[in-house]
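anyone seen this seq b4? input:
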Amino acid sequence: MLELHDPLWSELDTAFGKGDEVPELIESLLHDYDEDTFQELIELLLHQYTIYAATVAAVPYLVQMAETSPLPVRTELYITCGMMVLGYAAQATTIAKTIASEQWEPLQRAYTDALKRMNTLHDSVLQYARAHIHDPSEQEYILAAWLAYGHHDALAELFLHHTGEQEYEGTCPACEQYFYVVVSDDGAITLSPDDPVFIQNAKHTEVMPAPVPSAGAWGALRFAAEQIEAKSLLGRLSYMTGTGTCPHCQETISVADALC
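predicted toks r here
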């Protein structure tokens, strides 16, 4: 991985310029983890879910911190790196154009090797979450990261951007019109053409639940949700993979396909 004293840091982009500050902040965290310093670093590396060349160079150090940190800190790093992984999937090609290929390729290799090490931490994070994290929003951040590490990008994006919410946006696969996917307190889902937050008694159609697939992105999500006992999410999963009637064209559609 890129040595902290390497002058290349000053050529790598961050959210607010070049990466001169990044190695100093990393070195401070490696010596003594501090939440304020961590947040200062993340503001440079992950801004509104956008990552940068300096982010790719920093990930091996973040994984190193996760490997050696207490479980609460490890879990925070796990979530943060998961967001970075999701950003990398969408932005790596663009980032690669910002530096010379002979500089980019070693950064990319170190990043990939670091993620292999992060994959060994899944079980400890899920076990910690099962015992100590019961807030649905916090649980869904962990699940979004889990999905990102498994390359289930579309579903990871869905949960990352709608964490803890009772409402999603869907697109009908048949007529391509948008609608709202509204979750009730018991997990049941309805589809509405209008935002029920602003329109009371908006017309809607019911969703019929279906078994959650055992494989693929939804199967991976169900597995991890069961591991951490994410009861709120588990209560709605069979509806999210169920079928409903599009409130616009009245075609029967797969809710999962409409969501992502």
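The chain is about 55% helix and 10% strand. The CA atoms of residues 196 and 202 lie 6 Å apart. kinda curious what u guys think
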